[in-house]
Amino acid sequence: MVEKKSSLVKWVSSKEFVSTVILLLWVVIALLPIVFIFVTSIKTDEEVYLPYITWIPQKPTIKPYIYALFGESPFSQYIMNSIIVAGTTTAIVIILASISSYAFSRFRFKGGQAGMFAVLASRLLPAVSLLIP
Hints:
This protein has helices at 14-41, 45-48, 63-70, 75-106, 112-122.
């Protein structure tokens, strides 16, 4: 019996090819603003205010980063405030969620199933999506 050699090239269907191209196009469109923000952050002030967009800076600089991290800006204080607020909020939410989840799972009380359903249903939609009319 003769064994068939497998080809190194895997042929893809046109449906897979089209879906891959669409996905890659979507990724490029999604990443384009992030790349633009980074490129703009390393431009000089003169280049930022030009009336046309340049994707490659003529004189790249990291001066704004040095100013934000080590200069006179209160950037470190802002970061510390954010860490304190986020950490405190996270700790409070974890403590309260642990207590309420223990009560919902351990004790049987009137309205317990409805309360648990309400908690789960409230997590289905992000709060930001409720702002859209």
